[in-house]
Task: structure prediction
Amino acid sequence: MRLITHNMLKCHVRGCDDSSKNFPLEIQDAQLEQIEAEKNDAFLVRMFPRLEWNALVSTAKNLSINNLPEKIPENIEEDQALLEILHTVLLETNVKEGRMVCRGCGHIYAIKNSVPNMLLAEHEI
Result:
């Protein structure tokens, strides 16, 4: 699972409505790998406004990736160094195995072979 995908996932367990705790899901026991991806600055610039920046920064720090700026950068289309960092963090950093845990309800979403299992049991829907 690439970190760009993680930035869009939240807990959907019934009754887990506290958006301050059900997003972002905390990645634990992560087995990371770098997968080379074609660089596309235009894609990154288009996706940038859709990112939850604080969630991305906190997730990256949790995974010992400490090269993202704390504050939301401006004019990223002009900052080649930042575009390179975003490309690496969002598109080339892959969680191969691990789990995501909701800080609100404690539900665990397994990640196997780079695929997060977001399916819920019937009683959780």
The CA atoms of residues 34 and 93 lie 5 Å apart.
